[in-house]
Every structure is written in structure tokens, then in C-alpha cells.
Design a protein that fits this description.
Blueprint (H helix, E strand, L loop, with lengths): L2 H6 L15 H4 L36 E4 L2 E4 L3 E2 L3 E8 L3 E4 L5 E3 L5
Antiparallel strand pairs: 1-2, 3-4, 4-5, 5-6
Length: 109
Amino acid sequence: MSKKAEKKEAPAKKGEEPKKEVKKAEAAPPPAEAPKEEAKPAKAEKAPKPEKKKKEEKSIFTLYKIESDKVVRLRPTCERCGPGYFMADHGNRYTCGHCGFTKYKPPKE
């Protein structure tokens, strides 16, 4: 035998056990079947969202009124912005959408 062959088969050192060859088939038997996941409870179906109603567009006729050949404005105009900027009616106040000016209505008695 050659010296290289002797080195490959070196004896184990003191206190160590000789290495054993393990076959892959014997190492770990394949698991029979993976455990099945438990069936999750079905989620309650959400109620369908109600369809949004389209807002009716404001026409020019809601801002003016005709009285005996005269045109009368139904809403006040903004004091800061001038004529052409109508104020929005919010129940107890009027608000300008352009500059944000707010004018409170007098309280009803």
C-alpha cells in the first residue's frame, strides 16, 4: 500500500469513537404524511355597500328669483370677494367657499 492510502484510513485518536457511515435511507425515515391544517371557519360575508346617490347639480335657477321683471339674488354675496361669489347656506351661518369668510345669521326668537 501507498502512504496516501494509509492516511485516509487513519485510526481514531484516544477518547474518540470511530466514525460510522450512515446511509441516507436509514438516517431518517420520511414522514408518512404532513399533518393537515385545521379548516378555518369561514368569514362572515360583509353586507354589500349601498350605492352612492348622485347629487343633483345646482342649477342657476336655485340662486336667483324673478319678481316683476327684476332678478333677485336668493343668497348673499361675499363681503370680501365681491359680487359673483355666493355664500353657502349652512343652517346658522353663511360661508364663502372662495376665501372662507363666515357670516352668522341672527338667532331666531
